[in-house]
Q: What sequence folds into this?
């Protein structure tokens, strides 16, 4: 059984269209259709129901898809082992990263990686998740390192997510703020009179917070919109307003100093952070080696902030 047939099959199952799958796989549609038909003949089972609207998996297709994905993953892992045993990995890797994962995570992971693969060069783009996901889709980046709302992360379409950790959005305030010492459970309605400082549109956390407020009938109108996390937190630290972030993003002492976080019990916005990549496109050896290095790298050894008592200070 040829691996290319499995690639075509998985792409068609994901897109529910031979035409879209052919675009994803950079192959002519008739070629893809013939290869899938050959796979069906080889297996002795019809994998797709075909119609003018597209294709959908049959019962046999649903049974086979997990094995196909597992086989492709195993081959990729084996290929990576052989890559790392050799010394010929070289080239540029274009990576998009949100600011709080740049330090300590990405930079710290890249340092030993570069010692092992000195001929790999990193091209780094720092921006918001919504911007970066578009760049990954457009092939301007090899992969991205950022977070997405949990419901969106579970339905990624043509993109895949190697999840690193999850976190729940909480209120971020100065340590001297009256709410920092409170013990009563916080609700969104307790915060509507607060001035807000937020990241600009294009950051997924901004959209998630706006949607969470809208579900409760509130409109979030910030007094400041920041382009960087450092700038946003400076405004919070100086008392300009409050904001909302996943607390694990404040692990860096440079970001978390002077701040406190509190959970908001009816603010339901959870994020999955990880490596976002194009699911049906083989990464370059250099990009694959870096992805695997990031997946093996430690993130944080401390007790996660959201498991501590409400109103705690961020270590600084």
A:
């Amino acid at each position: 059984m040829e691996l290319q047939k499995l690639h075509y099959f998985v792409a068609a199952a994901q897109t529910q269209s031979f035409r879209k799958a052919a675009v994803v796989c950079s192959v002519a549609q008739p070629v893809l259709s013939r290869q899938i038909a050959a796979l069906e003949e080889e297996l002795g089972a019809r994998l797709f129901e075909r119609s003018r609207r597209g294709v959908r998996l049959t019962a046999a297709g649903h049974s086979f898809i997990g094995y196909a994905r597992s086989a492709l993953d195993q081959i990729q892992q084996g290929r990576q082992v052989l890559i790392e045993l050799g010394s010929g990995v070289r080239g540029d890797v274009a990576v998009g990263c949100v600011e709080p994962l740049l330090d300590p995570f990405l930079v710290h992971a890249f340092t030993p990686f570069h010692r092992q693969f000195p001929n790999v060069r990193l091209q780094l783009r720092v921006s918001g998740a919504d911007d970066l996901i578009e760049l990954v889709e457009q092939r301007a980046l090899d992969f991205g390192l950022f977070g997405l709302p949990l419901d969106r992360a579970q339905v990624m379409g043509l993109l895949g997510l190697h999840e690193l950790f999850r976190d729940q959005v909480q209120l971020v305030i100065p340590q001297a703020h009256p709410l920092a010492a409170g013990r009563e459970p916080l609700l969104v309605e307790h915060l509507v009179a607060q001035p807000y400082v937020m990241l600009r549109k294009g950051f997924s956390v901004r959209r998630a917070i706006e949607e969470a407020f809208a579900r409760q009938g509130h409109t979030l109108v910030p007094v400041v919109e920041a382009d960087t996390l450092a700038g946003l937190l400076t405004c919070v630290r100086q008392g300009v307003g409050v904001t909302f972030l996943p607390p694990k993003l404040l692990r860096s002492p440079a970001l978390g100093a002077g701040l406190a976080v509190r959970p908001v019990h009816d603010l339901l916005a959870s994020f999955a952070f990880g490596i976002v990549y194009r699911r049906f496109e083989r990464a370059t050896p250099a990009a694959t080696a870096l992805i695997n290095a990031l997946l093996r790298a430690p993130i944080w050894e401390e007790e996660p902030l959201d498991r501590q008592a409400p109103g705690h200070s961020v270590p600084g």
The first strand starts at residue 48 and ends at 51. The first helix runs from residue 3 to 15. Residues 301-316 have pLDDT under 50 and may be disordered. The domain at 168-271 is CATH 3.40.190.10 (D-Maltodextrin-Binding Protein; domain 2).
